[in-house]
Amino acid sequence: MSPRPTSLPPEIEERRARAKQWFEALQQRIVAELERLEDEAPDELYPDAPGRFDLRPWTRETGTGGGIGGHFTGRLFEKAGVHTSSATARFSPEMAATMPGADKDPSYVSASISLIVHPRSPRVPTVHMNTRFLSTAESWFGGGADLTPTLDEQRSQEADDAVLFHAAMRAACDPYDPDWYGRYKAWCDEYFFLPHRGEPRGVGGIFYDRHNSGDFERDFAFTRAVGEAFLDVYPKIVRHRMNEPWTEEDRAEQLMRRGRYVEFNLLYDRGTMFGLKAGGNIETILSSMPPLVRWP
Questions:
Q1: What is the pLDDT of residues 31-46, one digit of tens each?
Q2: pTM over 0.85
Q3: Catalytic residue IDs
Q4: Nearest alpha carbon to residue 106 among 130, 90, 95
Q5: What digits encode the pLDDT tens for the residues 218-241?
Q6: Cα→Cα distances 130→47, 70, 142, 144, Å
Q7: Which domains does the chain possess?
């Protein structure tokens, strides 16, 4: 088992503890809200019993730490995962070469929340959100949130759900720096793109990594604001869409779009690659995979 990174300043552990506490509290609030939506779903469209989260604590096999995996199968949400993790460990030489500050010392601490929601209805968009704190000899935040409608009529940044989602992400950014939304929206559009298909994964949102303005309190407050924005806007979108009926053609289009989601997450997603290489929990890392999918 890897030792605690004694070379990192004591305040780093305190900052990680605060981030971990926030992510775990946010996890509980998101779990409660998704279960509330599950209860509210109309029986005529979702006749099964409402689902409930299965919260599974886990422990890292390398270093120290672990997390709580929140796994869900339901009637409104066909599959969802809301997970937290934390770690005190050391990067492998391969990973240390890619991480700021790890060339001085490969030890690191981290804390994060990540989620994915795959609704049963093709009318309700898939959503992803994650935020994290990581520190080597340097510290930073990363994360973001993005929306992935599965029907062509909704797959435009001018569509109603996309406009609402982007407004929420802008509102999270603007109090801290009016330039951040434009920068992180553009980064999201660039990042969540399938080059082999020549198409975006969805309608975007924001994406940021190695975010360190030099003011920890400001950056931590911004990261909390992203979580709050998600918790506010996505339930609004779900409540707006979950009463709409759908066709078999809609369902077929949804399953095809889910195939694109699989392609991105397995070929390009940094979080998937980082989690697997850093000794994370495979069950939670791969919970982003949709339950049903098709390729034409």
A1: 999 999 999 999 999 9
A2: yes
A3: 128
A4: 90
A5: 999 999 999 999 999 999 999 999
A6: 31, 14, 8, 6
A7: 10-288 (3.40.1500.10)
